Amino acid sequence: MTPEEGPAIQARQLTKDFEPDGPLAVDHLDLDVHAGEVYALLGANGSGKSTAVGMLATLIRPTSGSASILGMDVARRAPQVRARIGLALQEAGLDRASTPRRLLLLHSSLLGASASQAAVRTAELLAELDVEDLADRTIGKLSGGNRRRVDLALALVGRPEVIFLDEPTTGLDPLSRTALWGLVEQLAAAGTTVLLTTQNMEEADRLADRVGILAAGQIRTQGTPGQLKALVGGDVLAIDVDDGAQEKAATVLAARTEGDRRVRLATPPGGAGVPAAITLLAAEGIAVHGVTLTAPTLDDVFAAVVGGGTADGADAASGTGE
Amino acid sequence: MSTSAGVGPPIEVAGRTPVTGAAHTWAAPTPPARRQLTLLFMRLLREQARAPTTYINLLISLFFLAVFTGAFGNADAVERLTGASFLTFILPLTVLTASVSGSIAGQVLVFDLESGYLRRLLSMPLSRAAIVGAAILLGGTMVLAQATLVLGLGLLLGASHASGVLGLLAVLALALLWGLAFAGYSVATGLMAGNAVGAQTAVFVFFPLLFLAPTFLPRAALSGWLRTASAYNPTTYVLEAMRSLLISGWQAEPLLAGFGVVGALCVITLAWATFVANRVTSRS
Where do the structural domains in chain B lie, given as residue ranges? Predict the structure, then answer.
């Protein structure tokens, strides 16, 4: 078997310890992402997503363990790995004094294109990322969403076989987010292997072939979105209660909160748990204003696997960045 | 998303799957480090030429030349002691002031570090030496350009040049080495601090050194602690080497001392910069 017949991205016991006495940022991570697959690492801030991507993309040296991209070890063959990956990190890494066109031309040349080839590739990317009108504007003056597009264009210059997208839609407006999702779908359709990190369940659900839920540097569970939703083991019951009664209701039912007045909990299929839940709430004097039975979402999976709230909720609670 | 129609036919390359739009456009390997260095240097140079701050440092040097000459130009002590005009005596000082522009090397690297662009460059198959070297090359270029302008203006105003054109080139070589020493210093401190203030400390270090040297009088005319301090100040030897070239012609002793001191400074700060840059870019 040639190296490239294995997983496009592979990690074995990959670990990063930034502080000797602190918790591990990434804790013995095992990961296989197959060629052409879109894999989403789903987790809250501080769960280790960006550190994992940093190690896989050769930017951070692992403390222990190993990782390979297209069969090439990231530690021993970092330059070769870099030649075949694209990377768009959480914060757009751009020269703000330059323009999109000049940067794309430069990066094409740095990757070996002749002047005419660089011009062709630059024109293609400006068109594909829909930033032709902004091509000659100073990057520092572009909006956050447009900077993100330019950043992604730079990641695509060398037509990478593997691309890492670290929270690609964080801070984007809905239109920009939908456009970026479309681009990821195009990449996937063209056979590019995509590893994306996200806190957005909808994003993972829509884009990913498989999702890994990361918490405290470890993958707690992984599978297709359908497999993960099946882990919840039935339906999800959403109950609307009085203002101010949400926390108490959540405690009584061992449920999680959603919005200001709703609690959500897993329940056996067919609504078998509805009467019992309402009875328990009534016993505590909590009035029920509405009951909805839905199929589980990745939010519910995340809550079931990691505990507590959603990835977004956990972010708000932790308040830490990666 | 729009399509890439109208941008010309793609150049097919076998064995690679198109990512979006047209097929792969080239299959050339990553260019050699020298080509990378040139491309990265040209990017920095283009941006530096557009930055107003580039011209401020030059104006400051010219301002010093005008002020020092205007304020002390009639003082005859220097003429009696050196046999040269005060303009000729003070010109090396303004050349050295212009040479501090070498610290731009650290500033541009820190700017890239802060904007995240350095991380993007590090994620590409590029030589680390080319990335840092482009910044240092920019520092050297800025030094040569500014020192040449200041020196040229001084000559136009009537400064003497006892060692001829070769002597003027030697003055520029001293200025270049001095500027590269500051480039190395600014790269090291800037990358260590990770912010622009760290890179700018090169300027803060320069001025105390300047005023602890025989700046306005020859060393023989200094006395007490200032004379002692100037003997341990590397600026002294660079100034004296430049002055000897402009005032006295080719003299081995000041030239050996000047080139020796500034060469050693260069080696020390550039080695320090290399060490720090390796640490910062080594994925730790």
Answer: 31-283
